[in-house]
Specification:
Immunoglobulin-like; 4-stranded antiparallel β-sheet; 12 strands; extended; 249 residues; alpha+beta; 2 domains; 6-stranded mixed β-sheet
Length: 249
């Protein structure tokens, strides 16, 4: 809500001297049985009012966020020779995928206050409300580290190419383990670390073909999905046994 209010304040300001014109290399991402990852090219231009002189350092920030889901982060310690869960923190809001690409390191083109209001950085995009565990920040850092290792959280400083302060483009890699849903692509234009324009669009990511059929069957007809899985397992076991018997002869 805070992020939305901050962006509405930006959009409610008088006519802007600079505006974002956006393009996407694809309107949606299809997850198939052989999906091994993909890329999205986000490109655009900066439209200017020629009558207004432009001053200040230019910053371009592109974020792509997957659906938000709560997640429990647990800490394990060795007790009596075994590893057990000793502490946990429930993260109320954590995007399943989050990428931040910028033309320069984020702290050089965005103030701490602006980041606090709009929650652009990965650290700010994850929120734990009401956590009473001491050092809860460590759990958030652990979640970021784990998902970064899986390619789900990405920070791409200097990942946005800007030409003549007029054209920009960035390539966002998508890993194979994407969660289905609507992904939000947001572009921020800054001058002297202050946001001067904002643009948002949605990129659907969905299963298609066999993946979609199996997903629907499992969630909408669980009994038949279980029966089919059991039948396949029995047939596979029988087939393996028959082949093994044939080779023994």
């Amino acid at each position: 809500m805070i992020r939305l209010l901050a962006l509405l304040m930006v959009l409610a300001m008088p006519a802007k001297a600079e505006e974002i014109v956006l393009g996407l290399s694809r309107d949606e991402v299809a997850i198939t049985a052989t999906f091994e990852g993909s890329e999205i090219l986000i490109f655009g231009a900066i439209k200017r009012d020629d009558s207004t002189p432009i001053e200040g350092d230019l910053g371009v920030i592109v974020t792509v966020a997957g659906p938000d889901h709560p997640v429990v982060v647990r800490k394990k310690d060795r007790r009596f020779g075994i590893w057990v869960n000793t502490e946990s923190v429930e993260v109320d809001v954590a995007p399943t995928f989050y990428a931040v690409a910028t033309n320069r390191p984020l702290q050089e083109i965005l103030t701490f206050t602006e980041d606090l209001n709009t929650r652009i950085s990965t650290q700010r995009a994850i929120r734990s409300v009401g956590s009473t565990v001491e050092g809860a920040e460590r759990f958030t850092q652990a979640l970021i580290r784990i998902r970064a290792g899986q390619g789900l959280y990405q920070t791409l400083p200097e990942g946005v190419w800007v030409e003549e302060e007029a054209l920009f483009r960035t390539l966002i890699p998508l890993p194979a383990n994407l969660t289905e849903g609507d992904y939000k692509a947001e572009i921020y234009l800054t001058r002297d670390k202050q946001i001067v324009d904002f643009y948002a669009t949605t990129i659907p990511v969905k299963k298609v073909g066999l993946e979609r059929w199996l997903y629907n069957l499992a969630h909408e007809h669980a009994f038949w999905y279980g029966l089919m899985s059991l039948s396949i397992a029995i047939a596979a076991g029988w087939g393996a046994s028959a082949v093994f018997t044939l080779f023994r002869r």
